[in-house]
Amino acid sequence: MLKSFSDKAIMTKALSMYGKRITNEQYMELMHKKTVAEIAAYLRDTAGYSEALSGVQPTAIHRGQLEILLRKERFSRYLRLMHYDNAQRDSYYHYLIMEIEIEQILQMIQLLNSNRAEEYITQYPAFLERSTRVNLMELAKVRSYDGLLHVLGDTPYGKLLLQCRPLGGELIDYTKCEVVLMSYYYQHVEDIIDHSFHGKTRLHLHEIFQTHLELLNISNIYRLKKYFPETKPEQIAKCILPVWKRIPQKELDRLIAAPSAEEFLKDIAASPYAKFVGSDDFTYIEYTANCINYYMCRRYLRFATDAPTVFTAYMALCRIELNNITTIIEGVRYGVPPSEIKKMLIL
């Protein structure tokens, strides 16, 4: 009975918060703002961000601070939903914490490769310190790969990244680190879904994660063929994430073996993924992939009857909204015309 109440509360709260989402009309107004300060002031007056920005002076905030506050708001929504979760620490809903932890580790790896590790302290999400297994303050002090391994200690991430340790003065293989960490993440999520759920709930959750993974892999294969045509198929195979059940191995091998980006598009056009084709511009393919995720999650949010599916769809939609707002902030900051910004939004 308690679990039933918990599920109902999570569903009701998620739908209520979704009702405060940024509307298409509000996106249009945001795109026509002239400065980041104007965007901050506008968001402060919207239902979904009024609390997060209540103490902000728009004229004094810069882009980085605003984006951190927006990320904090997404996490605050997660915590509001978790208030109703009666499960143990290994609850399915903790997948979001793992996702955030891996994002922070990969961000530090990027900074290490560019000799800018000291910049992490200015952008790390301090509001997450009590929620993650990774000590973010200690992560901010990292200045080498060995230092990173030390901070990650006995976490699963430290053990996984041992296999990516660079030799001598080599750069860290970021792609290898990303594949190792994200493969662990998706496998872990799949295992939790299989262990915790059955019936439609299990089916729906697998569809959400596997569709996202499938679209990510297709986009990555095309990116490599388009911008790094010298990349060999065996190298591409090392850059994609496990596909699970959705893409047959023969189909995946055929796409990876395509001799060029143009041939890849032809192969896609003759496959169940023909929806990707319509332009030879990678931006179109990536944008289409994001749109597919958006409409799938919006459909599940409206029609699903179980809390895990509603939660997962809602948090994915929150991420898309955050990305849209960030895109607008960057566009306004660099003087991009509203008509061009609109083309990059997932609406």
Describe this structure in words.
The chain has about 350 residues and is an all-alpha fold. The chain is about 65% helix and about 0% strand. The chain is built from 16 helices and no strands. The radius of gyration is 21 Å and the shape is globular. The mean pLDDT is about 90.
Silhouette: globular
Number of helices: 16
- Overall number of strands: 0
The computed structural class is mainly alpha
Keywords:
Topoisomerase I, Chain A, domain 4, 347 residues
What topology does this entry show?
Elements: H1 2-18, H2 24-31, H3 36-44, H4 63-82, H5 95-113, H6 136-139, H7 145-152, H8 156-161, H9 174-196, H10 199-227, H11 233-237, H12 249-257, H13 261-269, H14 282-303, H15 307-333, H16 338-343
